[in-house]
Write a structure and sequence with these properties.
The complex is a heterodimer of chains A (about 170) and B (about 425).
Chain A lengths: L4 E2 L8 H17 L6 E4 L3 H8 L5 E6 L4 H16 L5 E8 L3 H10 L7 E4 L4 H8 L9 E5 L5 E5 L4 H7 L6
Parallel strand pairs in A: 2-5, 3-4, 4-5
Antiparallel strand pairs in A: 1-7, 3-6, 6-7
Chain B lengths: L4 H10 L5 H10 L12 H8 L10 E7 L5 E7 L2 E7 L10 E2 L16 E4 L5 E8 L6 E8 L10 E2 L9 E8 L5 E7 L1 H8 L7 E8 L10 E7 L6 E5 L3 E10 L3 E9 L5 E6 L16 E4 L5 E9 L4 E9 L4 E9 L5 E8 L2 E9 L4 E8 L10 E6 L7 E4 L4 E7 L3 E6 L5
Antiparallel strand pairs in B: 1-2, 2-3, 3-4, 5-6, 6-7, 7-8, 9-10, 10-11, 11-12, 13-14, 14-15, 15-16, 17-18, 18-19, 19-20, 21-22, 22-23, 23-24, 25-26, 26-27
Classes of the chains: A alpha/beta (about 170), B mainly beta (about 425).
Chain lengths: ~170, ~425
Amino acid sequence: MTISVVTKKGRRFPTVLALSLSMLYTLGGSLAAQADNIQDFYTQSFEQIKAQYEGEPFVVSLWSIDCAPCRVELKMLGELKKNDPDFALVVISTDSIENREEAADILDSYELAGIKTWMFADAFVERLRYSVDPLWHGELPRSYFFKADHSFESHSGILTREQIGKFFPSIEQ
Amino acid sequence: MLPTLGQAVLFMRIFPMTSRALVLLALFAWGFSAQSVSAESCAALRELHGNEIVSVHCGGAPSASFDAQGRLWVAFVQDKHVYVSYSDDKGASYSEPVQVNEVAEDTEFNGENRPKIIVAPQGEVMLSWTTKTSSNFTGLIRFSRSVDGGKTFEVPRTVNDDGLTTGHRFDSLFLSDSGNLYLTWIDKRDMEASLAVGDAYPGAAIYYAVSKDFGKTFSPNYPVSQNSCECCRIAMAPQGDDKVAILWRQIYDSQIRDHAVAVLGPEGEVSGLDRATVDDWYIDACPHHGPSMVQAQDANQYHMAWFSAGELHKGIYYARYDLGQADSNQLIEVDATPGAGHPSLAQHGDELLLAWKGFNGVATQLHVMSSMDDGKSWSPVQTVFNTEQASDHPLLISDGKAIYLSWSTAQFGYVFKELSHDD
């Protein structure tokens, strides 16, 4: 188990590049409307996600189609989300968004297709990973517990119900 | 060329025990030739020739090897097909790509999964790859070859012989001096058998097959090891004229994902199976981060480079594994900077090179360092490329005359560059 505590300070972002990419992907997204709830994840997405949860705790789960242990975690998260729709959960796939249909099918099988999720939308995956956490090596599943002040703890490997219950004591298990 | 401050600091960290005189000598002797990039980006090619162009510069996850005549062969994936191009000018120009599989298949292409290509001394062009068969980690180990110098390829065959719809992925290919072609992969048939009787099974297994007629026929599948990690490439290096040593990520105590080594023989003999790295990486996850291994000057010793985020070691590491002693030594922390990963080793003559990727938040760096004494001491780190666009894992290969970088990048296209030494 790998646990590290990092404050939200100390990040650098390639702002100009991120902005231009963001505009590019927004444009692409609007041209090709999709039936699923999967959003493009680009270099500014994580900051936007954090802004949506300002002052609130939330859990982040990163997964990929290729990752067998991730399915164990997705199954558990799907069950928790079904029992408690207020569970503040952010699910991000590190697969290219070109594979969105395959990802959508998998999310659907864990009853996670109804919530907004994200997929990597830039082939420069190192930059996207860095935007989440510069100390993450890319191993999956990877998860984060963001407290209300957005300091966070990271975890590599399959999350357990106990870990989530400890972080969110109010959640319906 | 003098190293930067950061390189010097890293250098000092790598050589805590090295004498100052040797350090200074290495500082002045070291230096790669200036890198100029002549490759073409896929974006530029598409602008000229349209989006349908098939090229080494556009294909996914290329890998390369030299034939006995010094011709460079590159295999890559594009639009569900494996393609082969060759170059007679060491990557300055490439032949028109030839399609290997006529019928499209969901060929895996990513950092840890790529088509492999080896050309036999008599000219057979032999390829292996993994074809994905579902979203649930299933795949087939595929093989094809050309017996007319790469003009046409045989209909691909499936080499895993269990007939199961389960995981057979992460293939690696190796040709021994004696002409045994070894094909090894990560296999989930034993996991399926365990689950069928209600037993838990951590990870997957390593299997292999051998061809003694340059890919015309293959042996039955032979088991190597149970409980391997499921998602990392397997490294292969010579052992004698006839055998091969392999290095892969293995699960220890159900939870630790470090590395194991074994020697495979042509009749299914597995020997020397042992733990090769002790990093204590406790993780029930996919690292997607396979090792690299080449034979040392002592034929029973191997240079290893790998990544771990273990309790004991975090970052890229180098060590030498002694097959006779079943022990690793000369452990060096190569790069513990966050973002460092995917090391590749190659040796030619006295020169041993190690290349890997770094990421500083904005750009990817391609780092290289060199040892002229069989891995005992190392040069400072040279950063030979810097790119603010996407890139593949770097691979090093040798033609017996020099060491080359094989690296697919969005900015420069497919980079094939000699990493020469100045002295």
